[in-house]
TrEMBL record:
Heme c 1 binds at residues 124, 127-128, 266. Its cofactor is heme c. It holds the Pfam family FixP_N. Belongs to the CcoP / FixP family. This is Cbb3-type cytochrome c oxidase subunit. C-type cytochrome. Part of the cbb3-type cytochrome c oxidase complex. FixP subunit is required for transferring electrons from donor cytochrome c via its heme groups to FixO subunit. From there, electrons are shuttled to the catalytic binuclear center of FixN subunit where oxygen reduction takes place. The complex also functions as a proton pump. GO terms for molecular function: electron transfer activity; heme binding; iron ion binding; oxidoreductase activity. The keyword Thylakoid does not apply. Component of the cbb3-type cytochrome c oxidase at least composed of FixN, FixO, FixQ and FixP.
Amino acid sequence: MADTHTKEIDEISGVETTGHEWDGLKELNNPLPRWWLYMTYACIVWAIGYWIVYPSWPLVSSYATGVLGDSQRANALAAYDAGMAERAQIGEKLINASLEEIQSTQSLLEFAMANGKAAFGDNCAACHGSGATGAIGYPNLQDDQWIWGGTLDDIHTTLQYGIRSGHDEARIGDMPAFGADELLSKEEIRQVANYVGEKAGLEPEEGIDLAAGETVYVDNCAACHGEDLKGMREVGAPNLLARNYLYGKSIDSIVAQVTDSRNGVMPAWSTRLEPATVKSLAVYVHALGGGE
């Protein structure tokens, strides 16, 4: 490689070279396009003007405010503060209004639905799913099966205090572990599971004494689930004739639940979310399609 620094006129292009040559390749001294140069100069002038007019240069503890004193950051913060103030006003109205008034007032309903949808995605979707259709162990909020009731007030109360959450007002409905605590034998558990399953539309297992299962049910289960198997919301006992079961609808899943009951937990959202958000969630969940 050589660098001769000898300028000459290129024979092919007729352009003067810069005098630089690398491995036989000579650099032509073509000038930059004028439009490109003018745009570069204009950008430099614009940048200098921007530095003068708008906040730009950092100082020791602040920054240069510029001739106009305008700041996009300050504008964004002002817009945020205005939005939060407006939100606080509507939130105050939401707190002071009853759930029925929220449903019947268009402006409050629109705010509650939007606020509830956002809060649901942030706090509830992890368990109940983004579409609120639930999963094994997590209720489907779009159907009409409610353990504790599906009215606006019922849903609001459940959201406020939770289920087995440790809150003083929490909903508590603990089912005994009939097998783990040796309250029933394995045979009795299998009998009562088949009896309940047969009443709920499942095919009972062969060789099971359903009459004995009925006796076990009456003696141990009817006090909470009712003699008609339709449950009691007052104590959180599910309707055993429902289409779906929280932990799966099969003879084996019923046996598992009776043997060692699974008692799910829902947080008390009143300790985590502001009252207006809890009300918004109640209105939103009620409107999903299963509200009573």
